[in-house]
């Protein structure tokens, strides 16, 4: 039972050894259950003089604050596809047709709508991600197909290559003459990229590299755009150079090479390249993933993407970076944009999903008090519990990922080293944290919409199936969280050696000492609403947890590595490390949310954001209450007060839930689910099935 | 962050105010991280003299103990369909073709394989559910299609009708000449069955009922078998009788009627019946769900399923049951078999899913210690954390649902009233609890298999999509849990009035008093392994929680109902009530698991079961540690010991994980995922894509 809805302590005033204070009793009397008339929720059967009945939300101001500066290009995309029913994906479509349709959707974007995403990949990532979000809302397969072409294939050429590559390939990639793939993953190696086995052996006589798949485990697998449409592939392979010593060759580690896989004119598979179709997937079936085997495929020496390492005519290796590991890190570092994009796109999916589930929950009525009309299901405490913290989280992740994109854009401009490290860890953490959350939320939303949530037209099936792999591609979530933990530990060590910390975890530098002190037994009992809703209390609680986790895991690793070695010690502490990484990411998300509340210019929008920020913070503290109780950071009476306040805030958010989802500004053409239409939802739904 | 992997307190010996005892330190030194060679896990780098290195599991004995007495008929089903590739569902199939295929699968079962499920619906439910499990493993749509025909349509006729109905319909239902539907749900009413609006008005002149859909909200929706194949429908409608008073009519509440919807010979839709297709669903697209509207459809008086209420020739109503509510309860009570079947089938899905994920985790290697071979991903603590408590839960739910089926069979024989109430609550609780768990587990398994888990051939997509609706149909999970809570409260009140309790919650009768005493501060600190693995400690902890939740919610309801009325009070306590219901179901599951361990005749199988039972129990206590800490049922040192032991037991289970999934006895033809084949999995996988 993982539910954190209620626990005996928090729920039972009657049993508590520590009597609840009057203040909490007064508060609890305000948490009246929701009994609503059909059209408008009329709550608060016990009047509450000191509180406004319902927050007034200036939806327009809130929406303006949320939406970025790239509304225009998104509207352009929406408008274009809405005017082209031939380009919209039907509910039922075969895999082959879906792949062709996605390719046509992409051609139309570039060649008809005149949107040129490749122009922005390097120079205006914010705009690029805005296009990707809009395109993904037409069909997520289309969004991923576009990402494969421009961010993965195109991005690898311009980020890992040099001027000669840009000169030769930019235009073809941009105008889709040069469709391409990103061939990194192999059948046996996904996360462990340094374990890849494909080889690129330099032949000094012919001045060529020879690409080989040494065994079945090294077959390139899951390569998007490979099964049908790709003409080129960026192939990651071990660079093998001939040497004059007894071994005869030297393995220089994983490098990236441009390998033509199909003829530019005939589209025939080129000699030595074997392509198979990876077939049906759980979702994203509009993307043609293929498997590639190479048998002595020859490419010119120029096809090495040589930004971080090059081979001269006579087979000498040169690099500005001293070690294989540094070159490898630099290479992968350039690919971080994919993670940034996924974290952001995942929030987009969460917005659509939460909007559908909440609009339906407002519409749907079931049961009610004796001889009174049925009530909206969002008036049930259990339904508020399912959806209101989710809505608050959606806002939280929105601000966090917008922040990440800004940092990333800055990084692409300045190439500042600290910023690079920071964006690397932050994108790994947010991608992992947000996609895991959205994946669970999609199931919660489907279930919250009952049987009608199971109708394909109402979207949860395809959203979940398409989004599912966000947890795995561009870095397995469990692996990425370990990178976050590793980075924190590195910072931790540097701190104790007097070094500086990168920006995301300034809080650790500033106040690690104070967080590690014993919890204050007086504040541990404070339970007033003002205190619990104070951002300082909330942020302190999040950071306290992170600091303790970091300090303790550092000591455990130190202890265990003496007997188990570093790999063994890491594995012994793995659960602890993952919890640390999540705790850190939550601290960052909360800090960004608090900042976003503070910076919101409109007072009514700011009040709505503050309400959700409080719900987000307290819900998370409550979900982890065991941790806080164990170290007496929170006394039993305070735990109870946090729980009650969380229920109350959920109820408060419910009262403005319509305005809050409206502020996402998702038109009916984007949500598309009949049960979530903004007018006559039931009628539109019955019409869909033919009545 | 809902993760319960580790928390600062449990993880950091260094910070704890309460120093961990030597015993725990000794224990923790045994929890060595898993560093394995490729083929066999070699663990325990620090030797542990007192423990066996690896449990020896007698797989055959364990399997024999698990599998029921209906292996034969299941094997017959497997064998029949494996010999008939024309009857196997391909990965890609259009909805229309899928529906036709499912109908053919069902015809073949009855007319070619000679399996006759309808014979067992009433008389041998265990056998019926065994057939359903086997059929569902061929294609879940087929399983549900069969359930609609025999359990819902057939079941309603034999359970709600009388001899005349059985005489007239039994054979046709059995041999599939009379295909039928179960038309309960309406567009606007799912959970609230008493709110249905379809009417059946008696016309005394023609001795007929007239079936009408009064408005769009009353259109029968999601009716399985209606869109294409059904000839009849059991329609739930308000029985309206003419009266001689001023109102002219009397609403007798919801009753069930047999309504022919298509011509037996021509299959044309009958006059007055309008049928639309509900279209594509998230899953189960082999089942043809339709929507039905009735316009003055006339049926003979005999078509009222009159077991609990009848109408005479002159329009007089008679019933053995005194009130509308009692008749409604009796009617719905007869439909409980569907829930029993779903709970059991959900465990079947969980077994397949866990088997695939665990077999793949044993196969897959990624990363490893420096200059050593890569390790199996199941050797990672994080992966053990994902899958080992899940494996233990699968065993737990297996025994619990087998118990439920036994009770249900007994109930069908004895019609004992207490047993009926008990089976009603237990089936509601287990169906809800198990299907929610399986739904989450399917996503965890997909993610645990990384990219290869996203290949459609590896099953997680279709399993999740098909299973998803198990949470909703046959009773929305959130609604069903409330029925459990309601039943507990009823029992609670009766107890205090000196009445008897039904069998499932004997524990409440026997020991509620002792559970409600203040926790013992001495035992709250006991942290020895013998104590933590003692079933008495585990069961006491589960039951203590349930008893407190029950007692406290009863008091809260009592308090709030004075100001809010009963509906308002219930809603105010709703989260609390749902937590109570889940806690109770967990108590029942654990009790049954402990019993199953005790009764296992083979000592080695028993030891394996005991290991998993301990993991199940301690993992659940750890997941809810905040609750136990809040009331000081568990002191900080004990919380820490529980967490460490959970990690250690997960590691122990990992060492026999292969044997434990093998004991489910699922042949490769049932699991079907190439990545989980018992030999040459990678080779079979590459072959599937064409290499």
From TrEMBL, chains A, B:
<keyword id="KW-0443">Lipid metabolism</keyword>
<dbReference type="GO" id="GO:0033540">
    <property type="term" value="P:fatty acid beta-oxidation using acyl-CoA oxidase"/>
</dbReference>
<dbReference type="InterPro" id="IPR012258">
    <property type="entry name" value="Acyl-CoA_oxidase"/>
</dbReference>
<dbReference type="InterPro" id="IPR046373">
    <property type="entry name" value="Acyl-CoA_Oxase/DH_mid-dom_sf"/>
</dbReference>
<keyword id="KW-0560">Oxidoreductase</keyword>
<dbReference type="InterPro" id="IPR002655">
    <property type="entry name" value="Acyl-CoA_oxidase_C"/>
</dbReference>
<dbReference type="GO" id="GO:0071949">
    <property type="term" value="F:FAD binding"/>
</dbReference>
<keyword id="KW-0274">FAD</keyword>
<dbReference type="Pfam" id="PF02770">
    <property type="entry name" value="Acyl-CoA_dh_M"/>
</dbReference>
<dbReference type="InterPro" id="IPR009100">
    <property type="entry name" value="AcylCoA_DH/oxidase_NM_dom_sf"/>
</dbReference>
<dbReference type="Pfam" id="PF22924">
    <property type="entry name" value="ACOX_C_alpha1"/>
</dbReference>
<dbReference type="InterPro" id="IPR055060">
    <property type="entry name" value="ACOX_C_alpha1"/>
</dbReference>
<keyword id="KW-0285">Flavoprotein</keyword>
<dbReference type="InterPro" id="IPR036250">
    <property type="entry name" value="AcylCo_DH-like_C"/>
</dbReference>
<comment type="similarity">
    <text>Belongs to the acyl-CoA oxidase family.</text>
</comment>
<feature type="active site" description="Proton acceptor">
    <location>
        <position position="474"/>
    </location>
</feature>
<protein>
    <recommendedName>
        <fullName>Acyl-coenzyme A oxidase</fullName>
    </recommendedName>
</protein>
<keyword id="KW-0809">Transit peptide</keyword>
<dbReference type="GO" id="GO:0055088">
    <property type="term" value="P:lipid homeostasis"/>
</dbReference>
<dbReference type="GO" id="GO:0005777">
    <property type="term" value="C:peroxisome"/>
</dbReference>
<dbReference type="Pfam" id="PF01756">
    <property type="entry name" value="ACOX"/>
</dbReference>
<feature type="domain" description="Acyl-CoA oxidase C-alpha1">
    <location>
        <begin position="333"/>
        <end position="488"/>
    </location>
</feature>
<dbReference type="GO" id="GO:0005504">
    <property type="term" value="F:fatty acid binding"/>
</dbReference>
<feature type="domain" description="Acyl-CoA oxidase/dehydrogenase middle">
    <location>
        <begin position="181"/>
        <end position="297"/>
    </location>
</feature>
<dbReference type="InterPro" id="IPR034171">
    <property type="entry name" value="ACO"/>
</dbReference>
<dbReference type="GO" id="GO:0003997">
    <property type="term" value="F:acyl-CoA oxidase activity"/>
</dbReference>
<keyword id="KW-0576">Peroxisome</keyword>
<feature type="binding site">
    <location>
        <position position="224"/>
    </location>
    <ligand>
        <name>FAD</name>
    </ligand>
</feature>
<keyword id="KW-0276">Fatty acid metabolism</keyword>
<feature type="binding site">
    <location>
        <position position="185"/>
    </location>
    <ligand>
        <name>FAD</name>
    </ligand>
</feature>
<feature type="domain" description="Acyl-CoA oxidase C-terminal">
    <location>
        <begin position="534"/>
        <end position="678"/>
    </location>
</feature>
<dbReference type="InterPro" id="IPR006091">
    <property type="entry name" value="Acyl-CoA_Oxase/DH_mid-dom"/>
</dbReference>
